[in-house]
Specification:
2-enoyl-CoA Hydratase, Chain A, domain 1; eight-stranded mixed β-sheet; 11 helices; 17% strand; binds zinc ion; zinc; metal-binding; ATP binding
Length: 288
């Protein structure tokens, strides 16, 4: 039809050359751009390097399944409490809807995955938070799964390794979220009394109620380079203390310098480091 022809022509005529901005945008999925140094690399290459930028060492965030695959032997992992689902105890607007959409998006039931596997042949209970699910926030289910994982570690006398990535307590569960800080801390205290090793690995970001409870309670606290770790946000603290904070405040490196961490370990060396630590602690266990 004549009318269609005109339409098409007009469309054709308005095509403009792609702007510099658009040219620099990368087709999703194939290429990835480092947010720190701007290097563009193949997504597959990046995955092979455990999602660490080869140019500058920037650590991209990892999902829980990716982290588990990179940590346990041959990706073999037995998951605990798979069917534990969050309720909406306060009837918080849209909470159920948001949970459902995060479940679909991540293919996970909650913001933490717990279970067991072996690392370098050493059995361990492992927990991994996933920041894609409600920003890795801690509600009742996250707290319960972590507490149960700690209890299983005590029963089995396996070390417990927990990877944190969290925005803190989950506001949609109000005070029940805050109670998880006490519950997880109590479970870890039992581990401590039973002399079972707990290694906390803090990844970007570990903030709020999670940094203020189990993430900081490791017998050994390890962080990934550049990870943001802190309780309150920078602006809140600056307003409260009325002082400008140093540039590297709340980074893994800053915390290491000030004695709040034991180690900052690049992700590409992390598995080896965990194996070394498990090895060092297994001797004592066998000879108890
Ligand atoms: Zn980079």
């Amino acid at each position: 039809m004549l009318k269609d022809l005109f339409k098409k022509q007009r469309k054709y005529a308005t095509i403009t050359m792609p702007s510099e901005q658009a040219k620099r945008e990368i087709p999703e999925g194939i290429m990835q751009k480092c947010p720190k140094c701007g290097t563009i690399m193949y997504a597959k290459e990046l995955e092979k390097n455990l999602k660490v930028c080869k140019a500058c060492g920037y650590h991209f965030s990892m999902s829980a399944p990716e982290r588990i695959c990179a940590t346990v032997d041959e990706g073999r992992f037995f998951e605990y409490d798979v069917d534990m689902l969050s309720e909406d105890p306060l009837g918080f607007p849209d909470y159920r809807k948001k949970l459902k959409s995060d479940m679909e998006k991540t293919n996970l039931n909650e913001a933490v995955v717990t279970g067991e596997g072996t690392i370098g042949g050493y059995p361990a209970v492992i927990g991994v938070m996933d920041s894609r699910f409600r920003m890795g926030s801690m509600g009742s289910v996250v707290g319960e799964k972590i507490a149960r994982a700690a209890e299983r570690a005590v029963t089995k006398r396996y070390p417990f390794i927990l990877f944190s990535a969290s925005g803190g307590a989950r506001m949609q569960e109000g005070v029940l979220s805050l109670m998880q800080m006490a519950k997880t801390s109590a479970a870890l205290e039992r581990m401590h009394r039973e002399k079972v090793l707990f290694i906390s690995v803090l990844t970007n970001p570990t903030t709020g109620g999670v940094s203020a409870s189990f993430a900081s309670l490791g017998d050994i606290n390890i962080a990934e380079p550049g990870a943001l770790i802190g309780f309150a946000g920078r602006r809140v603290i600056e307003q409260t203390v009325r002082q400008k904070l140093p540039e590297d405040f709340q980074t893994a490196e800053f915390l290491l310098k000030h004695g709040q961490l034991d180690m900052v370990v690049p992700r590409t060396e992390l598995r080896e480091m965990l194996i070394r630590l498990l090895d060092l602690h297994s001797y004592g266990r066998e000879h108890e």
